[in-house]
Amino acid sequence: MRTAKGILAVLIAVVSMWFAGAGESRAEAAAYVIDPDHSQVIFKVKHMGISTVTGRFDLIEGSYSFDYADISKSSVETTITAASINTNKQKRDDHLKSPDFLDVAKNPAITFKSKEVKKGDGDDFIIVGDLTINGVTKQVELDAEYGGKAQDPMGNERTAFTAETKIDRKDFGITWNKTLDSGGLVVGDDVKIELEVEGIRKKG
User: What is the pTM of this model?
Assistant: First the structure.
């Protein structure tokens, strides 16, 4: 038969374990800063309906929080410098920066801020958030996949993700086009966006 002292010890142990578990459930998601040297924002759009032009934005910054155990606690916020658009053709890039497309003088930043992160299959998840391009904000969904976690030679913890979505550029007020003799259009409306993101965990 247990003594009162023994029962008290068991109760203390149970309560301690309960509070430890409660502390874990309340733990905040780990915070990361996006590493621009190992992150990419790529876009693809049809040209004349027969080929695909691929470009990228060279300047990206932002941060995200990530909780693998409870993905709903995760979030992301990024800013892209619109003038850093790069399709490897200066004349085309200048046109894309003009009021016909991104109007970078008036709208220097492309931003994304998540509103919800939902679990998918396996390591897949869905990021729902507000995307602002050309001064217009629309809600979009990104299909994302967790790439994993690693420690770099300097001892920093890193995580990585890939994500993609497709938007209609006309939804963001980008409507410029030319009609071909065949009746087709020079620039497609659908733009596929692909992201490769790597982040360094914040210290402290």
Answer: 0.84
